[in-house]
Structure formats: structure tokens, C-alpha cells
Write a structure and sequence with these properties.
By secondary structure, the protein is mainly α. Helices cover 70% and strands 3% of the residues. β1 and β2 form a beta hairpin.
Length: 223
């Protein structure tokens, strides 16, 4: 995805600095249409012409963007199939997509010895509350440690639920009325989502680990 972003940024930058006749060809086009037009450019035979040289570069960048987009789609499909076999319940949760579910499973699978409870999982994801009380002020702040990839996955889930989930929005309004700031509300949401995800991941991995692998003799007979 980073490579695709670099390709489209390079394409847009080259279009802005292209010769005037070529630049007009892309005026007012959407990004997808811009990529399609650039990928279909024909530079001609005179490769010493600046316009022809620019067309070659634009076509190469556009086709790279298309190739990377298809590669991302294929990778997303593979991930969804893997998650569907390992923990399909994750994908049924609001705000949880393929990338979020994959990241949480990777974090849990890479640190099995650290996940003794849902508190341990929250600390691993960097969403466990840390006391920041002072004097008569009783408050907590978010843990800045832990796996930042898992923390980002929980953060994106919280943002998605704030936009689409009525219960999450009602909870945020209630906590805001109690005087909590936006950051404190996000901390509470991420902590709750971590607790929810931990239960699903633990159940999925327990079921998967309880299934015995097929015996070699069975495979031989099957063949």
C-alpha cells in the first residue's frame, strides 16, 4: 500500500510538471480515470521528444499503480480466507475489517506467552490505562507502550464505531457529559474493544489448537 501511494504521488507530480498539451489531457479527471488514461498512453516512435518521454514515464507509473492495486486485492482476499478459517467471528464485529483482524491475530500469535488474561492482552496492545492522578484529580492516561500495530488496529476500530455504531456514539456522549475529554473517551473505547477482541481470539485459537493434525497413515489411505 505504501508503494502504491508512492506511485500515485509520483504520477500526479509528473502530470503537474508535464508539457502543456499533455497536462491538459488530464485536467479535471478523477484519480481512477487519471490512472486509466495514463496507462493507455502511446508515446510514439520518436522517444527523443519530451512529450513522448513523459508519456513513457506516466504509463509506467500508472501500470505500476494498477499492478499494486491488484496485488493488494489478492492479498486482502488471501487474508480474508485465512481469517475465515482461523477466527471468522472477528470479521463479524463492527468496525473490524481484514487488516484489523489480521493485525490482532498476528500480535496474539507472536506473543502467546504474554497473553495470560485480557489485562495482559490490553497491555500488549498498549491500551491499558495508566494512573495519572495528581492531588485531588483522579484520572488515567493511555499506555504509550505495547505493539503499536495492534494499538493502531484498535484505534481504527474505535473510530469506525464512533461513525457507524449507535451504542458507541451513545456511550461517547454519556462519557463526554461526565467531563471526559476525547482522548480519555478513546482510551476507554480501545480498552473495551481489546477486552472484546481478546475473548474472540482466545476462543478461536483454543478451538484451532484442539483440532489434532491428520496422521500420515490417514493421508496415505486418502491418496
Amino acid at each position: 500500500m505504501k508503494s502504491r501511494t508512492a506511485a500515485i504521488n509520483a504520477l500526479i507530480s509528473m502530470i503537474r510538471s508535464a508539457p502543456e498539451p499533455l497536462r491538459k489531457q488530464f485536467a479535471g479527471l478523477t484519480r481512477s480515470r487519471m490512472v486509466a488514461v495514463a496507462a493507455a498512453l502511446r508515446p510514439g516512435c520518436d522517444l527523443t521528444d519530451p512529450i513522448a518521454g513523459t508519456k513513457i514515464a506516466l504509463r509506467r507509473l500508472a501500470r505500476r499503480y494498477q499492478h499494486l492495486s491488484q496485488e493488494i486485492k489478492d492479498a486482502d482476499l488471501d487474508l480474508r480466507l485465512m481469517i475465515g478459517q482461523t477466527a471468522p467471528e472477528l470479521l463479524e464485529q463492527p468496525g473490524v475489517g481484514t487488516e484489523v483482524a489480521a493485525q490482532l491475530l498476528i500480535t496474539a500469535g507472536d506473543n502467546p506467552e504474554r497473553i495470560r488474561s485480557e489485562r495482559s492482552f490490553a497491555a500488549l496492545c498498549g491500551v491499558s490505562p495508566i494512573s495519572a492522578s495528581s492531588g485531588r484529580t483522579d484520572r488515567h492516561r493511555l499506555n504509550r507502550g505495547g505493539d503499536r500495530g495492534a494499538n493502531f488496529a484498535l484505534h481504527m476500530t474505535a473510530l469506525s464505531r464512533l461513525r457507524t455504531d449507535e451504542r458507541t456514539r451513545a456511550y461517547a456522549e454519556r462519557r463526554r457529559a461526565q467531563g471526559l475529554s476525547h482522548l480519555e473517551i478513546m482510551r476507554c473505547l480501545k480498552r473495551y474493544i481489546a477486552r472484546e477482541m481478546f475473548a474472540l481470539i482466545r476462543a478461536a485459537l483454543k478451538v484451532r489448537n484442539s483440532v489434532p493434525p491428520p496422521l500420515i497413515e490417514d493421508l496415505t489411505l486418502a491418496v
